């Protein structure tokens, strides 16, 4: 499995950062570059324990759908999401928010495995891990800019 962790300090409270990170509309805005849209969102437009969402996006010129479930919601400390249907053999994302002297330390830990066994493992090592790291870092940069305005 491929795995990476990103950390970023954001000048906002943990509650503010948590709320921004779990906001479906802000997620769509942060992924606009990839044409990501929400095909089926959570009831009421807000993620709650067990909410599912289906995203549509285009990466590497290939369109795909990814359905995930949001769980282990513990405001303003953390939440997790994992793919239930989509392009990965496995995808899990843990979001953690800790108080920091300058605001909030936001930590994202992503664990994933591409399909197709050994070929997928090679793809993950050669470029998918770095591609996913850049994508999450880009999203986190947008969250920070939005909150620090």
Automatic annotation (TrEMBL):
Pfam families: Polyketide_cyc2. It comes from the Bacteria. InterPro entries: Polyketide_cyclase/dehydratase (IPR019587), START-like_dom_sf (IPR023393). This is Cyclase. It comes from Microbacterium murale.
């Amino acid at each position: 499995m491929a795995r990476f962790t990103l950390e970023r300090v954001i000048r906002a409270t943990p509650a503010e950062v948590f709320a921004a990170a779990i906001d479906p509309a802000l997620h769509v805005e942060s992924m606009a570059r990839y044409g990501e849209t929400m095909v089926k969102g959570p009831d009421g437009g807000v993620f709650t324990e067990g909410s599912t969402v289906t995203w549509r996006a285009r990466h590497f010129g290939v369109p795909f759908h990814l359905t995930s479930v949001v769980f282990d919601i513990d405001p303003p400390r953390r939440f997790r999401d994992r793919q239930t249907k989509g392009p990965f053999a496995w995808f899990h994302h843990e979001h953690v928010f800790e108080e920091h002297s300058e605001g909030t330390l936001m930590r994202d830990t992503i664990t994933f495995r591409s399909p197709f066994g050994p070929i997928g493992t090679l793809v993950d090592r050669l470029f998918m891990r770095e591609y996913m790291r850049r994508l999450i870092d880009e999203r986190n940069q947008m969250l920070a800019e939005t909150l620090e305005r």
